[in-house]
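ESCALATION

Customer reports they have been waiting on this structure for their group meeting. Please prioritize. Original submission:
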Amino acid sequence: MKKIALLAVAFLAGTATFAQSTSTTSTGTKWGLKAGVNIPKYSFHVSDGENPETSTITNFHVTGYSDIALSSNFSFQPGISLQGKGGEFGDDGTNEYKQSTMWIEVPLNLVAKLPLTSSGTNFFVGAGPYAAYGIAGQNKIENKANGNETTSDVKFGDEVGKDLKSFDMGFNFIGGFQLNNGFNIGAGYGLGINDLRPKNTSRDMKQTNRVWSFSVGYAF
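Update from on-call: job pushed to the front of the queue and completed.
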């Protein structure tokens, strides 16, 4: 997990450097950074049965994006994001099982803006597809009696012995407030549609990501 934290810091610094060094001469184009908390879980889709879900865990995200004006009330927001996902599979009375994963994600959102003041503060809502690639993860088993933990790395791939497929895709839904001083606050929901289970597992069940997110950011 220390490697993931260092990666997040490097990602944030690199995105900020890129944004500051990029010209914004295109009319109506802004650059932004946002970060915050993720509340992810897994959803399982069972053929002719119930669709169980895991419990949620806490993770984080860091996102760099551009806001390209299409009109006075609409914009296109492509970006690149470091997204923490995963879920808690529950316990068997003795141990708790959790999985935390980290993905490089590319969101492509269309955003509508509703001005709230004449000075530039607005309410925004948006949606769009995303594609993501898994880069790191950790499986954790915690003994409830003595607190001892056993951890292992998540193995990405579609072969026998892997934990999750390395590719994910789905849709994002976002909303929030953009303030006239550049700061913004927002929330979002990520709806994964790609089956994350490797080919060697049972094919009568589909596993997908579900993520609530809450962020603060700055656009310039």
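Sent to customer with the following note: The CA atoms of residues 80 and 106 lie 5 Å apart.
Escalation resolved.
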